[in-house]
Amino acid sequence: MLPSSLLSLPGRCLLAAVVLSWPAGGTGAPAPPDRGNPEAGWLAEHKGMKKTMAVTLRMEAGAKVRRTARGLWLPVTIANNTSGEVTTTLAHEWHGGEWPSTDLYAAVTPAGAGKLRPFHPVYLFGEPIGKASGKVKVPAGQSVKVLLRLDWPGTGSVPAQPLLEPSAHGTYEVRLLLVVDAGGKRYAVGGPARVELARK
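RESULT FIELD:
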């Protein structure tokens, strides 16, 4: 499990939220995603993964992407509104080797673009000492606050196209996808939510 000191943030930083809601009875039968939707592309690479409409992901519209000397970040809260514990794997950005394992994905598309960008793994802001990836347990009725690094360039040996370029100010639509485990793995999608990247 990742140390809580790496996950917690002051409440005033909260601009976006991911809310998990997992009722005891059934998961329903969600409609398949439309072609061109980032979810469809993700499912093509994760065949057999079941979707649940009982898990909802919400982000606050108008959230601001924060600029720092070490990169761009967007605050997100993962809240468990179920009657039991849920777990997920989250990972911090890392400097070398293969990308760390994570259950969290993001698709960031300029507002008004004709084609939606696909989901890519998204990592927590800042590089920890020791292991980058770990299980995060969210007890019933509690939440975890995290920062997402949106301009992570990948590792030295496996570079990545950043989800958001620091020089590309403007309005973006952010979609999230999270895989959670509560007696079985399922995924949920949320968004789009519009966020702003201001000029320097």
